[in-house]
Amino acid sequence: MVDSKYVLEVKDLHTSFFTDAGEVKAVNGITFNLEPGKTLGIVGESGSGKSVTAYSIMQILAQTGRITSGEVLYKGEDITKYSEREMQKFRGSKCSIIFQDPMTSLNPVFTVGYQLEEAIRLHTNKSKSEARERAIELLKLVGVNDPEKRLKQYPHEHSGGMRQRDMIAMALACEPDILIADEPTTALDVTIQAQILELMQDLQKKLGMAIIMVTHDLGVIASMCDEILVMYGGRVCERGTADDIFYSPAHEYTKGLLRSIPRTDNMNEKLVPIGGTPINLLNMPEGCAFCPRCDEAMKICLKEVPDELRISDSHLASCWMNVKKLYESKEA
Ligand SMILES: Nc1ncnc2c1ncn2[C@@H]1O[C@H](COP(=O)(O)OP(=O)(O)OP(=O)(O)O)[C@@H](O)[C@H]1O
Ligand SMILES: [Mg+2]
Asked: Among the residues of the chain, which ranges form H helices?
């Protein structure tokens, strides 16, 4: 294994779906690094390519989907070159994913205990009784009361919040280095949401794993992320700490997202949705993907994709407005 400071590096990742209607370019050059034990947030509107990014890392894309270029390095090793067998091992012991809707991942005809024990036995060489003990331990870890009884129940006998805890226990069964949580709380009400996020942070402290939090709700995850990527049209349009993104957004899309969510620091502000419709990925525009919806768009925005411009040590954004401001400040 190559020595790397990062547990995961994604380099200029492109993923497309080859459909009857043509090539859907869902991910168009995503780059990021993740250090062990850190949390990365990926935010963006529906269809911005968040899940496809996550599924590309795990290589669990739909049949028509394919990584067309780029690299995904796990501890310095390019896993896009892995065989399916090696990928199974990666998915089983290095990286886990929690899906948005637990009912799609829990099988309704088997008890929670059976499914959890199977997951444990698949990834370790534990015996049946050892797997049962570990399952109890895991349910306790994720805060399920009376785990012995709960294991004997079917998924529909558990509440929404409890099923999400079951899923987290399942994802932790292999003690992953990386946990990808794809909208883990959107199906839950606000108080349960907060409990689940707190639980994930707690587990991260205990187990030291890195987390990728995928969400369309910037407000929900901001406080737990070391870095946030804002995605639009399968690209990163802005990245930075939660403070960078919330207090000095440098991309018109991020500003639009912020105007559309309630904020406790300004309760009187009116919420404004972003106008226009999301882009057609079958026919990506030549320039900035957000240009057709941007009030500040200039001629160049139509023609060329802006490079990432560094705004501070932690903060980068891809918007021609920043380049313009830079020139103006140099001229002044
Ligand atoms: N199997 C598929 N075939 C064709 N296009 C697909 C397929 N899966 C995803 N896409 C397209 O890729 C784009 C990105 O989808 P993705 O699921 O990553 O969005 P998302 O950011 O996760 O949105 P959401 O917040 O709704 O989950 C969408 O336009 C979607 O239509
Ligand atoms: Mg998604």
From this structure: 50-58, 84-93, 102-105, 112-123, 128-141, 147-151, 160-172, 190-207, 218-221, 242-247, 252-259, 299-303, 320-331
Helices (H), 208-332: 218-221, 242-247, 252-259, 299-303, 320-331
Q: Nearest-CA neighbor of 201 among 216, 181, 219, 229? A: 181
DSSP reduced 3-state for 22: strand
- Considering Cα of 169, then 173, then 179, then 181, what sign does the dihedral take? negative
Are 139 and 133 contacting, i.e. CB atoms less than 8 angstroms apart? no
Q: Which pLDDT does position 272 carry in this prediction?
A: 79
Pull the structure tokens for residue 177. Answer: 């280095």
Q: Determine the residue of 13, 17, 42 to mutate for testing ligand 1's pocket, defined as the one with the most ligand atoms within 8 A of the Cβ atom.
A: 17
* In the chain, % of residues over pLDDT 70: 97
DSSP classification of residue 61: -
Residue 249 structure tokens: 């957004």
Determine the average pLDDT of the residues in 321-325. Answer: 88
Q: Are 320 and 288 in contact (CB under 8 A)?
A: yes
pTM exceeds cut of 0.90: yes
Q: Please name the residue whose Cα sits nearest to atom 3 of ligand 1.
A: 17
Q: What is the dihedral of CA 33, 38, 43, 49, to 10 degrees?
A: 40
Distance (Å, whole) CA 61 – CA 52 = 7
298 CA distance to ligand 2 centroid (A)? 31
Q: DSSP character for 273?
A: P
Sign of the four-CA dihedral 71, 72, 73, 78: negative
Question: Best mutation site among 14, 15, 24, 284 for ligand 1, i.e. most ligand atoms within 8 A of its Cβ?
Answer: 24
Total Cβ atoms within 10 A of residue 76: 13
Give me the phi and psi of 230, to 5 degrees please.
-100, 120
* Both tokens assigned to 216: 């369309």
